[in-house]
């Protein structure tokens, strides 16, 4: 559904995107993660056909984004980073206009409007002029405009940027629903969003894709994967009890909440063993967890390696 082959784009001396190759199928939600300036927006603009690549090709649902731009855009819902909707219309009139511009037949347009108004809670702002909307409301209206025609491909550039926690949940639920029949590529800076929504993650840095894996595989690369953590009043006694225990390779204590992390060698979970040892040595502890891994750590490591 989304295909990119060797996309490149330079702005003067800056190589913003350098050989971007990616394929996303219907039913997938792929997170595009990267530090500021990694090239995410530039790559998305080329995919959407809004920016001509210096080299490479992009296609949306089989249509070349540049040479068959109209056909490609009909099948695309694109939410740009800064969606420009400076209009005097009310939200309702603006979205009616978008439905007409998309060529939706009347009955379908009514259904589509009902769906986005309900899904994104737009009723309270239906009669507010678009130009006076708050940042979060403007973002939701822009998203409504991008997805209203239920396209098979969605390119969403930071879709929940500027939204409050309730709105974020709503937007994420809508993206999940839309992904059942669409291919979704979304950039984000929010790790919790990736973990809750995106089974696959692409990490970009310096214009290039550095990692493209399932999010689970990335979590397994984290040094926290299979670490055992707990809270102990007497953390020194806890460390002493576990020091030298077979497989234990190190400790780390969180400076903020005091949680102790015990790192273990190998891929076998050792929480049972650790719990038994603490009980045997009569060291009280609470809230023991087997850690799954940290995406922020894998992200930081990948970016640091790209910059080295
Ligand atoms: N129109 C432009 N003219 C000149 N330089 C540009 C232009 N657009 C992007 N760049 C540069 O290209 C690089 C990649 O920018 P891009 O916006 O694609 O990154 P990004 O990963 O989306 O960043 P962010 O997370 O901050 O949105 C940056 O160095 C940026 O300054």
Automatic annotation (TrEMBL):
<keyword id="KW-0536">Nodulation</keyword>
<protein>
    <submittedName>
        <fullName>ABC transporter ATP-binding protein</fullName>
    </submittedName>
</protein>
<keyword id="KW-0813">Transport</keyword>
<keyword id="KW-0547">Nucleotide-binding</keyword>
<dbReference type="GO" id="GO:0005524">
    <property type="term" value="F:ATP binding"/>
</dbReference>
<dbReference type="InterPro" id="IPR003439">
    <property type="entry name" value="ABC_transporter-like_ATP-bd"/>
</dbReference>
<dbReference type="InterPro" id="IPR027417">
    <property type="entry name" value="P-loop_NTPase"/>
</dbReference>
<keyword id="KW-0067">ATP-binding</keyword>
<dbReference type="GO" id="GO:0016887">
    <property type="term" value="F:ATP hydrolysis activity"/>
</dbReference>
<comment type="similarity">
    <text>Belongs to the ABC transporter superfamily.</text>
</comment>
<dbReference type="InterPro" id="IPR003593">
    <property type="entry name" value="AAA+_ATPase"/>
</dbReference>
<feature type="domain" description="ABC transporter">
    <location>
        <begin position="2"/>
        <end position="231"/>
    </location>
</feature>
<dbReference type="InterPro" id="IPR050763">
    <property type="entry name" value="ABC_transporter_ATP-binding"/>
</dbReference>
<dbReference type="Pfam" id="PF00005">
    <property type="entry name" value="ABC_tran"/>
</dbReference>
